[in-house]
């Protein structure tokens, strides 16, 4: 696809990145033991490439039974105090933070899809709201938005029941969040997988998930790092443009800065993206009309002290950014 694109004019700039306590299934840059100083270093690296917004993936995982703050409600979960130093660093570096709270990794099971029991979706939503209340009590004022940690996606082979259960889950969570913090913006990062020829069906299914939910911004995963066809990206993002139009929400794009090379082992093999591929992803999202471009874990895949491919991606992106910023400056003179 890049060969067909030719010498395209790269467009778009990153303004946000996901961060986390640790990656669930690959060796990334875990932050369980990060100090405030460690986080400040990461955020300064981010600001060097124009990233001023961070999205904390999750404060607890249901299936892993892990929690990254001192919780009284999540008894039986292994706990770390990982969020507090991150929030202190956010304040010190004047970053903007969207905070993920209670995440579900296996929705088909945890939300009762397999068991045909929608009560499990309600129970998981209530666990998320309990987690959010604790985080509000601990860190109110330390974050600026809410991230829906539990991801969902469209796939033509997926059970229609899944969308109904996710719909009940997201409606209950987002209603509760808005009741506790009316001014807090809510961000979701779902996905459509190979919806070409089924765009209306994909739109309808995602509206089943989010039609009654209170979501302010959708940043769909472009799934290019997961081997989705780069040539269909504009069409896939078009599905989300329609969802955002129907919801009155902002369209962002989660441009994946990695490539999964092997999923068969105990630890997923994953590496930084080819720079030209990544720039093309951003260009397509910008052309479609995404208001903001964010990415997954720039702290690892664009680490200035990381693997050679990560350093190469950061360097190429920095050159691209400098070129666009300089051009904008000349046009404003």
Write the layout of secondary structure elements.
Blueprint: H1 2-5, E1 14-19, H2 36-48, E2 53-56, E3 60-61, E4 66-67, E5 78-79, H3 83-92, E6 96-100, E7 102-103, H4 107-110, H5 119-139, E8 145-147, E9 153-154, H6 160-180, E10 185-188, E11 191-192, H7 199-210, E12 217-218, H8 233-247, E13 250-255, E14 258-262, E15 269-272, H9 275-288, E16 292-295, H10 298-301, H11 308-332
Parallel strand pairs: 1-2, 1-16, 2-6, 3-7, 4-5, 6-8, 8-10, 9-11, 10-12, 12-13, 13-16
Antiparallel strand pairs: 3-4, 14-15
Give an overview in words.
By secondary structure, this protein is an alpha/beta fold. The protein has helices at residues 2-5, 36-48, 83-92, 107-110, 119-139, 160-180, 199-210, 233-247, 275-288, 298-301, 308-332, and strands spanning 14-19, 53-56, 60-61, 66-67, 78-79, 96-100, 102-103, 145-147, 153-154, 185-188, 191-192, 217-218, 250-255, 258-262, 269-272, 292-295. The protein has a single domain (2-324), classed as Alpha-Beta Barrel (TIM Barrel). It is 43% helix and 17% strand. The chain has an 8-stranded parallel β-barrel with strand order 1-2-6-8-10-12-13-16. Strands 5-4-3-7 form a 4-stranded mixed β-sheet. A two-stranded parallel ribbon has the order 9-11. α5 runs parallel beside α6, α6 crosses α7 and α7 packs across α8 (233-247). The chain is globular. The two termini are 37 Å apart.
